[in-house]
Design goal:
This protein is of the alpha+beta class. The chain folds into two domains: 76 residues; 55 residues, no CATH class. The strands form five sheets. It has a two-stranded antiparallel sheet. Strands 3-10 form a two-stranded antiparallel sheet. The protein has a two-stranded antiparallel sheet with strand order 4-9. Strand 7 and strand 8 form a beta hairpin. The longest helix is centred in the first third of the chain and has 18 residues. It starts with 7 loop residues before the first helix and ends with a helix.
Length: 172
């Protein structure tokens, strides 16, 4: 006996709930990215589709590793300081990305920190999409009634005929 995956009607319900949860949890500077999430579902699969123009939401969800910004080599970069003034820095020669270390010292002259120039520190993922999918699936599992679970088991072929007959006898 072969088993079929969870039916579309159930995966659609879970995916739609996951989109609602992810949009609520997502960071909202303008709200455009989170409001464009779409449910993705098919037999046995749930997900959240993020349009390409809002791909930054995936980067925020997954995070990224630190990296040296090699693409800045030879370019002039405007940097705004704490007072709002714009200073220009050029990334070339000994100040090229990854070439020079920045050393910070305390008042005793001891080195307290070293870091590489023009290195992006990376970011830990926020995991709002993954967490929303997990929560939506858990909510469905906890709220599904016996009839819904039995009909899902029957439609997927996950149980043998004797199991279904036993459950039907217990129901009635």
């Amino acid at each position: 006996m072969s088993t079929e995956p969870m039916p579309d009607s159930i995966t659609r319900k879970i995916a739609e709930r996951a989109v609602t949860l992810a949009a609520y949890r997502a960071p909202k500077k303008s709200g455009k990215g989170a409001s464009n999430f779409q449910p993705f579902y098919s037999s046995g699969k749930i997900g959240i589709a993020v349009p390409p123009e809002y791909g930054y939401m995936m980067a925020l969800d997954r995070g990224w590793d630190p990296y040296v910004m090699q693409g800045l080599a030879g370019k002039t970069i405007p940097i705004r300081d704490a007072n709002g003034h714009i200073n220009f820095r050029t990334a070339y020669g000994s100040a090229a990305p990854g070439k020079r270390k920045i050393i910070n010292r305390n008042n005793l002259g001891q080195i307290t920190e070293t870091k590489i120039m023009w290195k992006n520190p990376g970011m830990k993922g926020m995991h709002f999409i993954e967490d929303a999918l997990k929560q939506a699936a858990t909510e469905w599992k906890n709220s599904a009634g016996p009839d819904e679970i039995l009909s899902m088991i029957e439609s997927t072929g996950a149980a043998g005929a004797s199991f279904v007959e036993t459950i039907n006898q217990l129901r009635f």
